[in-house]
Structure formats: C-alpha cells, structure tokens
Structure prediction request, 288 residues.
Amino acid sequence: MTKRILLIGHPVGHSVSPAFQQAALDYYALDVRYEAMDVDGSSLSRTVAGLRDPDVIGANVTVPYKQAVMAFIDEFDDEALLIGAVNTIENREGTLVGYNTDAQGFLKALKEESGFDPKDNNVLVLGAGGAARAVVVALAGAGASSLVVANRTLERAAALVDSIQSTLPSAEAIELKSDSLGLVAANCHLIVNCTSMGMSGGEGQGETPMMSDLIPSGALVCDLVYNPRETPLMHETAKAGAQVLGGLSMLVYQGAAAFGLWTDKEAPVKVMFEAAEKALAARQLIGS
Ligand code: NAP
Prediction:
C-alpha cells in the first residue's frame, strides 16, 4: 500500500516542501507520496483526524495552522510545547504526536552554512510571529548572552520576551523603527529577520526591515524569507559588508528533521537542497 505524508496549510500552492520531501522519499525508493492539502479552517479538525489512518505516516503543518492544530493532537515533544506551535506530526498507530522542527532547523542552518554558534553572542530578532517564537526559543536554549526582539506591534514583542524570561531574563522588546534599532544593532553579532518583509507576494514585498547603515559589518544577518532568494535585506547586508544567510537552508533543515522523524532514516540533505533550489527557481520564473 502506498503511504502518504501530508502538508496542511492555506495556501499551500507556493510551498517548495513537496518538491524536496518527495525527492528525499524517492532517494530511498520509499513507496510514499508527499501531498500538499489546501485546508480551510472549518475542515481542519476533520483533516487532522484523517491523519490517524493506517496509510498516513504523518504531516507537516504550515501557515496559518501551526498553533490551531495543537487542539487536535494527542502528544507533544518538549520543543513544540515551549514554542507553542507544531510544524510536524507523526502518526504512531493512531496516536498523533506533534513536534516543532523549526528551532533545530534554524540552529542547524546557522552552524552548517555560516559556522555560527549563538553561545555568548548578542542577538537582535526582527518580528514576533510564529517563526520568531521558534527562533527565540532556539537562541535562548543555545546560550545567547543578550536578545532583543523588535516588532512593528510592540505588545507582541513584549509577550514573546515575557515567555522566555525564565531562560533569558535580560531579553528586551523594542519597536521595529530605525531609531530604536540603531541603539541595539551596533552591538549585535547576529540579526535574524523573522518578519515577512521582503517576501514575494506578501504585504511587505520589496521592503527591508533594516537599511545598510544600521547593520554592523562584523555581524551575521540571517533572513528567514526564502522567496525571493536575494531579499532586500540581503542586499542591504551586502552593502554593509556583513555576512549573510538566506532562509532556504533553515527550510531544508527543518524538513530534514521532519523526514528523520517520519522515516527513521538520515535525510539526504544534498538531494533536498537541489530539489528545493530547483522548485524555487521555477516559482520565481512564473513570478510567485
Ligand atoms: P507571522 O506569524 O504572520 O508573523 C509575521 C511577522 O512579520 C510579524 O512579526 C509581523 O509584525 C511582521 N510583519 C509583517 N508584515 C510587516 C510589515 N509590512 N512591516 C513590518 N512588520 C511586518 O509569520 P511567520 O510564520 O512568523 O513567518 C514570518 C516569515 O518567516 C515569512 O516570510 C515566512 O515565509 C518565513 N519563514 C521561513 C521559514 C524558513 O524555514 N526559512 C520558517 C518559518 C517562516 P506584526 O506583529 O506587527 O504584525
């Protein structure tokens, strides 16, 4: 019987996960199909219940259901509980177990692609949505010495900082504005863009959360946005002479961690990167 792994979200047509997950499954010649499912909110509980079927191995969950899906899952790993969101589900003989692989995907991308260890470093996180939550939990756990969260909506940044007070009491929330950013950015070793500014097709398309004059030349700037491959923030970072890391590597490494959970096999990361880059290039050709 052909088994299935689903991607649950809305919309899902733009996602490159089906391309690189299927490439990984095919690499091991597994009789498994990875299928994107565009789910509307009213059918979320029914769709998740369907994951208990014996032919389903598990699922990925993407925007906007990473939090909502938790109401329909039986068990969670510690990181998913800490982040408060699930991006991977495993069907263990009818019991649904929720994981969040975004934090480890982010840390792995930092280490493998940039050789960066957050321990004892000053970090500035831009944004306070779901991706920022995973990044902040990852950085606090990895021993960052100071952490500032800057967001357009200050209350959201304050709530995120509150939630990690026990791990990182010195964390601070500020507004995402040039004058406030200028004060903290100069001492930062790592800047992570977790806003959707710069993302193709979104409300912040073509925009950057920081200009080059605020970016220290010795910093590493990591942009979680992966479409387009060269974001406005990456352009500003290059102008500042700082090191840059795009979002595709985190995407592939979080997917690689999910692949390991579903299959108990080592993810063929090189194959996944090639498939993701090819799929993304095709999306950019058709302008999505
Ligand atoms: P989200 O929960 O909707 O959060 C969006 C964040 O962006 C919020 O902080 C929001 O600020 C801010 N924002 C949106 N438009 C803005 C604008 N025009 N000006 C200033 N701030 C703006 O989304 P998410 O799930 O965290 O995802 C954020 C980005 O990360 C997306 O581009 C997503 O594709 C990317 N991402 C990448 C990976 C990866 O593996 N590379 C993984 C997850 C997410 P407010 O709170 O003020 O609204």
